[in-house]
Specification:
Layout (H helix, E strand, L loop, with lengths): L2 E7 L12 H9 L5 E6 H5 L7 H9 L4 E3 L1 E2 L7 H10 L5 E4 L11 H12 L3 E5 L22 H7 L5 E4 L3 H4 L12 E4 L8 H9 L4 E2 L9 H9 L6 H19 L2
Parallel strand pairs: 1-2, 2-3, 4-5, 5-6, 6-7, 7-8, 8-9
Length: about 260
């Protein structure tokens, strides 16, 4: 089994995306033997009210058991707490993603702290999108810097039961976290943007291979790239490879509660 912990449905305003509906996405992932995917709404990132995308995403994914939808919440928008409760209790979401850079707040802001506290109370896991795509590809009128992660270790320590996963983080984002996050069991790292031959193995052994999740960022990125990073570029044992490809995703879900 292979679980893609970082796939997308919908449209991105600055690039045409193919395979962006549930059926075609699953067909595309199946070409490289990916069985299941956690999906978010690309549309939600640019909505003023991001919660407007959560119900449609849940409805689409409900028809495809291989897909697990992840909600989007902006904790600076009015009534976000009500929206997050609805995502968990009415729509059945187990995880929620935040886009601090696109929604213009920092990890150290009180609003984000409040968001983590509510997610913790609801037994949800939290994804933090460090970027949506390489900054060199941004539209010149929409240059969005990556999320500053200096506050992350303190937040993870404050909410030790809350699984927090970084999405779309590059090597340069993760290296400064190696020492401050040592021994933290609630931090997880998705690998789609880790670069360099053997880069996933090098960073994984520093951060803890048991906390690395396989992700493709499909359909924005080709899923073949992520597969090759794990199966060809690195010298993982069979057990380590299985943990990255699906085992760690199961452990994260188990740690987040029902």
């Amino acid at each position: 089994m292979i679980v893609d912990a970082n796939a997308n449905l919908g449209n991105w305003p600055f690039r045409r995306t193919s395979y962006n509906d549930p059926k075609r996405l699953l067909e595309r992932l199946a070409r490289v033997d990916i069985d299941r995917a956690w999906v978010v709404s690309l549309d939600a990132v640019m909505y003023k009210n991001v919660h407007a995308a959560n119900a449609p995403l849940a409805e689409m994914a409900a028809e495809y058991p291989a897909l697990m939808p992840v909600a989007t919440i902006n904790p600076t928008f009015p009534a976000w707490e009500r929206d997050l409760v609805e995502c968990k209790e009415s729509l059945g979401y187990r995880g929620v993603r935040a886009y601090p850079n696109y929604h213009q707040y920092e990890l150290g802001d009180p609003a984000f702290d409040d968001f983590l506290a509510v997610a913790d109370d609801l037994d949800m896991f939290v994804e933090i999108a460090v970027r949506m795509t390489d900054e060199r590809h941004h539209h010149p009128l929409c240059m969005v810097p990556p999320v500053e992660l200096a506050a992350l270790p303190d937040l993870a320590a404050k909410y030790p039961r809350l699984p927090i996963m970084l999405i779309n983080a590059k090597n340069t984002d993760l290296v400064p976290l190696i020492e401050p996050t040592e021994g933290m069991e609630n931090l997880w790292f998705e690998m789609s943007h880790i670069e360099g031959t053997g880069g996933v193995e090098q960073l994984g052994r520093s951060l803890g291979l048991e906390h690395i999740l396989f992700g493709t960022h499909a359909p924005y990125y080709y899923p073949e790239s992520a597969i090759l990073k794990v199966t060809r570029e690195c010298e993982f044992s069979e057990e380590e490879q299985e943990a990255i490809l699906y085992g760690n995703a199961g452990r994260l879900l188990a740690s987040a509660g029902p």
